[in-house]
């Protein structure tokens, strides 16, 4: 516990240091990309637990991100003014609906971001629960294809449905007032606040996941990853645990979707594309499959570079290349635990006791 | 309501798509049988075949261009296997999937930078883009006949190859029981390389014959791969003949779906079918549970 | 020792002074967010090439008002979140005078607010009506209005006494916008839409869709998309024996689509900017010299046919350049005002007349009704 606390504190210190450096050197702008990276990291952390620790590959996680983001966007932009009636006025009175002026000077009656967010995440979790059962019974490439199929269905639905903007997506999504005075929004005046909000969520998520990994569930997961039949034979309810982790990772993705959508002020169908899911997987792979910290650091780095356009027109190729190189030469990831031992061995070849 | 002519016209469209899917699925099966790998880059072979043929077609007559494209793609297939797959030692399924996904992306990006974003097409083998043969109330483009005809010939030759030639039998031996095959002196490693070459060649040929109808561009590979393995699983992994049949089935279902669903959701049909099959009967319509169990590489 | 030091210091000081006086005026920084790769690359590719070409040309002449142009092209791959990130980068860090692009309507709508907040000029190459309606102070667009294109088609249909049509559209932003306009303007033009189908942008065979429309006995087909499928549609339609007229949108404006469709493209009617038939225009047409120069320069440099998509980027760049010249300054407010007050600017898309209420500047006269004869574009 103490070690974990130190790690978290250390990371938090790094986060603060980055912000202070950025502000003091007049480079506050970089915080924007770092904030967006933080939200993408939430997705990746959830995927890390699922694919890295529990060994269940998912090439469709962008689907959950999209479900969260799109539902929240839809509810907070769809104008209910035209629908009179007791239900609508009742909801408005309860504060679930809010009013704000629209682009043309008229009035928009929409759902307040808080209930919209809760609804979006719960829906994503419900869907994960519903499909998780049958999907997780599959193994190997069947599992991969089922998750791929799920991602594609979400993509096709958002792309083909007029209500959610079809190819254009949804825009003019309002800021998300989390607490009085703190809102998730892209306004440049709120940049530093949003930076801390985003990384606050990430740290919270890390704490949750680290505890999960060290708990009984986490140890069960490790055994499932290693040899599922043996774990089953030992009496571990593998199906139940796999489902639990699947749902948790879906929830992480959905929350990330909601928050980033409000930060960007919109969402488009590209957020649920196959390429996005592949990127998340690539980051988990390079971070070290079962290495939460490694994955987090890699996510920070790669998403930041990608969002700043460092990879130019080779953006997709970079992630594809990462996948191949890692899988060929370092299947346990780049920042894997053994790396430290190997480096020690390389630097001090003759020294030390051999560990058994 | 639908009359017979309309129904038959939908069928023609369905058979056209279906044959394309079937060709891709056959390619999947060849590699799967030899290695247990699902090659996510299969669609890229189709794309490469079409693109290369168009480039060669600028200074070679059509049949030579097609032959050249097929050969070039076979070489690419062999290179992929040798460089990225051959030397892996008992890789996990996860690793293989991820590698082939990565390869698919790289091939696509390379194609983008080589050929640009435009679409290309070979000229129609006979006739032009507007000629059509009229059979009663139904119109068929001659190219469709070429597609179906050549595909049928390919499937037949493939069947004969596996059954009657030495090389074919060696490949089958390898896929049935690799260690036993090795004991007989068959080089398992070479069989794997050869399966990639064969798969690439078939995919490339498919790309050439459909390009007049569908065009190819640098990202044509992905949707084909997805439909292709849906069909492969639908028919039963490992069974080429079943793939051909399943391809027809999917093509026709998609085509008929236009009459009831908005066309925008047409692609949801194939994915939904994939999920249903995976959940209910992963061995596919014609496959056996034995064959469906994951093979070892 | 001290003497030598003194001489070095003097030389350095002299060099600095000379350097400072010779130093050129501050460069003009222009950003561009384009979909160079990805699903909208047939838009972003030509746009990017056009902007690169124009920047080189302008700089070779010494820049605009003596300021060289620095162009930053960022590839968003049609991903809105990248567009958002790049927009903020360009505005806040590179402090660009203006952003050209994005290529797609979805991306433009996501950064419209950012441009307004950052008080930076946005000259979009995307076509959606909603980009300039409601009018936002800093946001302009160069492509023609979809409603004008649709009206041009309907005018022709009325001349041909067509009243029952079938509509096919792609599932991209462009297709969706066109479909919307068709449905909106049909009733007041006496046109009935018997059937309407939306197909996927990667569709490779549309026989089933056109079969359905033909079975509904439509007099004419209208296809609205900007993707390669628009060539497949007309092929399939002719193959199944549909003989009525086929209308396309201005997204057909690239000879590659005509080549891809082969003989099926003969007789297709569509509204488009005059770039495609520049050499057939009469010499008194004010657009002719501009069009011919762009076409020839582009084709010489890139060895591929110029398209109307690249033309939108050309217009964006040249409008900005002209505004900078006219206002004589690089102050964002002044340049923006210069754009808004520009009248009679001759571009590839048409002749632009901007105003405070009209940030698009084009009306139905920007379109010429074109057709395909013997595999080449011709005025209908």
Structural topology:
The complex is a heterotrimer of chains A (356), B (297) and C (380).
Chain A: H1 2-24, H2 30-53, H3 62-77, H4 86-94, E1 97-101, E2 107-111, H5 113-136, H6 140-160, E3 170-171, E4 176-179, E5 182-184, H7 191-214, H8 216-226, H9 228-233, H10 238-264, E6 266-267, H11 274-287, H12 292-307, H13 315-329, H14 337-347
Antiparallel strand pairs in A: 1-2, 3-6, 4-5
Helix pairs in contact in A: 1-7, 2-7, 2-10, 2-11, 2-12, 3-5, 3-6, 3-10, 5-10, 7-8, 11-12, 11-13
Chain B: H1 4-35, H2 42-56, H3 62-85, H4 93-115, E1 133-135, E2 138-140, H5 142-164, H6 166-176, H7 178-183, H8 188-214, H9 221-235, H10 240-257, H11 266-280, H12 289-292
Antiparallel strand pairs in B: 1-2
Helix pairs in contact in B: 1-5, 1-8, 1-9, 1-10, 2-3, 2-4, 2-8, 2-9, 3-8, 5-6, 5-8, 9-10, 9-11, 10-11
Chain C: H1 2-22, E1 28-34, H2 41-60, E2 69-75, H3 80-93, E3 98-100, H4 105-117, E4 121-124, E5 139-141, H5 146-159, E6 164-170, H6 173-185, E7 192-199, H7 207-215, E8 220-224, H8 229-239, E9 246-248, H9 255-261, E10 269-272, H10 287-302, H11 308-327, H12 332-340, E11 343-346, E12 351-353, E13 368-373, E14 376-379
Helix pairs in contact in C: 2-11, 3-4, 5-6, 8-9, 11-12
Short précis:
The complex is a heterotrimer of chains A (356), B (297) and C (380). Chain A has 14 helices and 6 strands.
Number of strands of chain B: 2
- Tell me the radius of gyration of chain B: 19 Å
Strand order across the largest sheet of chain B: 1-2
Q: How many helix segments of chain A?
A: 14
How far apart are the termini of chain A? 25 Å
Q: Into which percentage range does the β-strand content of chain B fall? A: under 5%
Which word captures the global form of chain B?
Answer: globular
Largest sheet of chain B: 2 strands, antiparallel
Low-confidence stretches of chain B: none
Distance between the termini of chain B: 51 Å
Mean pLDDT of chain B: 85
Main sheet characteristics of chain A: 2 strands, antiparallel
**Pair of chains with the largest interface and how many residues each contributes:** A-B, 43 and 38 residues
Q: Tell me which oligomeric state these chains represent.
A: heterotrimer
Q: Which class best fits the helix and strand makeup of chain B?
A: mainly alpha
Sheet with the most strands: spatial strand order of chain A: 1-2
What percentage of residues of chain B falls in helices of 4 or more residues? over 70%
Helix and strand pattern of chain B: HHHHEEHHHHHHHH
